[in-house]
Design a protein that fits this description.
Elements: H1 14-24, E1 28-30, E2 37-39, H2 41-60, E3 64-65, E4 71-73, H3 74-77, H4 81-87, E5 92-96, E6 99-101, E7 108-110, E8 115-122, H5 127-137, E9 146-155, E10 169-179, H6 182-202, E11 209-212, E12 224-231, E13 237-247, H7 249-254, E14 257-259, E15 265-267, E16 269-276, H8 278-287, E17 304-308, H9 313-333, E18 342-344, H10 352-362, E19 366-370, H11 372-377, E20 379-384, E21 391-394, H12 398-423, E22 425-427, H13 431-437, E23 446-450, H14 455-465, E24 468-473, E25 485-486, E26 493-494, E27 497-501
Parallel strand pairs: 3-9, 17-18, 17-19, 22-23
Antiparallel strand pairs: 1-2, 4-8, 5-8, 6-7, 9-10, 10-16, 11-12, 11-24, 12-13, 13-16, 14-15, 19-20, 20-21, 23-27, 24-27, 25-26
């Protein structure tokens, strides 16, 4: 472990490296509540940037934001059989509504007289409470479609947690839509999958595979589930977003019907779709290094860190003035349609060397070093977060050069992640090769192999290798991937290759 940075090298212990990045880069920390985390301002700034981008994309496709209760009556969850079975083991349950002083000693106890008539579930997801509401809203085909999204928190009582990737409480958005026909709901589910894909690739600089989940991996209560899957640096898959076509399952469970143009009473078709703060974990695992957090410019809380230097107050005042002027120019110039996020680091107690390492650790895309000699020569020194030499540029050109470099870095991160995925994607046709590929902790990557389509085979492969079917690709990754073949495990006929990987 580096004494300066406090980060375990990725090659030494990937899990410890990840946890060190989260803590040392001030993204999140453990809370007093087991399995829950405190998202610190630097980490929450990333979530705000994600929210802003996604919210704009949702509204561009005709969706509106609303909010539904945190509490779900237990009877609601029971109405859709697959749904309750899928979430029952993860539910946190409210049974009483009052505390009282302990009559036998200090402290508080649950008031036994305050037992709820019906237990309330802290939402693990909101399909049931929303569809109870939609039943009141929908009477006629004129009420359709309903296109609603909510930004919320949910609770899934996880026993083994990891900050951002899997916590008992997490933040997310969940879209819930209602449609007159199967085809309209299918179009919606595909549209939102593509929104997620564009967000992952354009904003996160993370290439993803878009596909449909197997029956064993689909959302509880869905007709079918679409997914985008990313590959981390330790060669595991991470589910970065899902979009579910719910069919009429929830409409039938809650009696949600509408009168069609022909005067017939029909059940509506539904979708739901969501991404969560797990995307921050994806971002870390896709791009960061042993120096700390690496953020693509579109999601970096601080894109440019300017470090003015000087040994005396007079010199410091001059360099800080020049730094403030450059920061103002960058904000006015903007990049990607918004002001550049720039920070002038005027901390007096820290040395320039400490600040350089600290901004690398926190993921600033570029550092600008500005000292008395730079003022004299009318130049600044630009240091990139990614590998590369420092560059001296004229002060008059600095803002323009930095803005150009932000775009180049965004592209470079995407191309690096794409090259990593391509180098770790292979096609395998024998069981011996398959098991060898996933042997040990280091084995992994995306494997395209034939599968016979049965749950029995899917379970057997997972039990033997810990690899699961991540996606059945919507578009072949390479020519021939969608052609029939022979299942890698059973030897039975297969319709085409699917993507296997070990996953978070």
């Amino acid at each position: 472990m580096s004494k300066n940075l406090g980060i375990t090298p990725q090659a030494e212990d990937y899990s410890a490296w990840y946890n060190d990045i989260v803590v040392r880069a001030d993204l999140a920390e453990d809370s007093a509540v087991r399995g829950c985390m405190v998202i610190k301002p630097h980490g929450y700034a990333i979530w705000e940037l994600m929210q802003r981008a996604l919210d704009n994309m949702f509204k561009e496709t005709g969706h509106q934001n609303a909010y539904f209760p945190l509490f779900v009556p237990k009877s609601f969850l029971e109405k859709e059989a697959d749904h309750v079975e899928g979430f029952a083991k993860e539910c946190a349950v409210v049974t009483h509504h009052r505390l009282k002083a302990n009559p036998n000693g200090k402290g508080l106890i649950v008031d036994p007289d305050a037992k709820l008539e019906e237990e309330l579930i802290i939402r693990p997801t909101s399909e049931t409470i929303i569809w109870n509401t939609y039943t009141k809203w929908i009477q006629s085909y004129r009420d359709l479609p309903i296109l609603i999204n909510q930004w919320a928190n949910v609770v899934r009582w996880e026993m083994r947690t990891r900050k951002f990737l899997r916590t008992a409480e997490f933040l997310w958005q969940e879209g819930h839509t209602a449609h007159a026909t199967y085809e309209e709901a299918e179009e919606e589910a595909m549209q939102m999958l593509n929104v997620y894909r564009r967000f992952a690739e354009h904003f996160m600089a993370v290439p993803v595979i878009a596909g449909v989940k197997s029956e064993g991996e689909k959302f509880a209560g869905a007709d079918h589930t679409y997914t985008i899957e990313a590959l981390t640096q330790d060669l595991r898959a991470i589910q970065a977003g899902t979009s579910h076509h719910l069919g009429q399952n929830f409409a039938k469970a809650f009696g949600t019907q509408f009168q069609s143009k022909e005067g017939k009473l029909e059940y509506v078709y539904a979708t739901s779709w969501g991404v969560s703060t797990r995307l921050i974990g994806t971002l870390i695992m896709a791009h960061s290094d042993d120096k700390g957090f690496v953020a693509p410019p579109r999601l970096a809380p601080v894109q440019i860190a300017i470090i003015p230097m000087g040994r005396d107050e007079e010199t410091r005042a001059k360099t800080i003035g020049a730094a403030d002027a450059l920061a103002a120019e960058l904000k006015a110039m903007g990049w990607d349609g918004v002001p550049v996020r720039v920070k002038v680091d005027t901390r007096e107690k820290e040395s320039p060397g400490f600040k350089h390492n600290d901004w690398e650790l926190h993921g600033a895309c570029f550092r600008v070093e500005l000292g008395p000699r730079d003022l004299e020569s009318g130049s600044v020194v630009i240091a990139p977060r990614l590998a590369g030499e420092k560059e001296t540029v004229p002060m008059a050109d600095a803002a323009r050069v930095l803005v150009e470099k932000l775009g180049a870095m965004q592209d470079e991160l995407y191309q690096r992640a794409l090259a990593h995925r391509e180098a770790n994607t292979c096609r395998i046709d024998t069981w011996e090769e398959f098991t060898a590929k996933f042997a040990g902790e280091g084995g992994g990557g995306f494997v395209l192999a034939h599968w016979d389509g049965t749950q029995e085979t899917e379970d057997a492969i997972s039990a033997a290798t810990k690899a699961t079917i991540r996606a059945i690709p919507l578009v072949p990754l390479a020519p021939g991937d969608d052609e029939p073949g022979t299942c890698v495990f059973s030897g039975k006929p297969s319709k085409g290759r699917v993507v296997f990987a070990k996953a978070y």
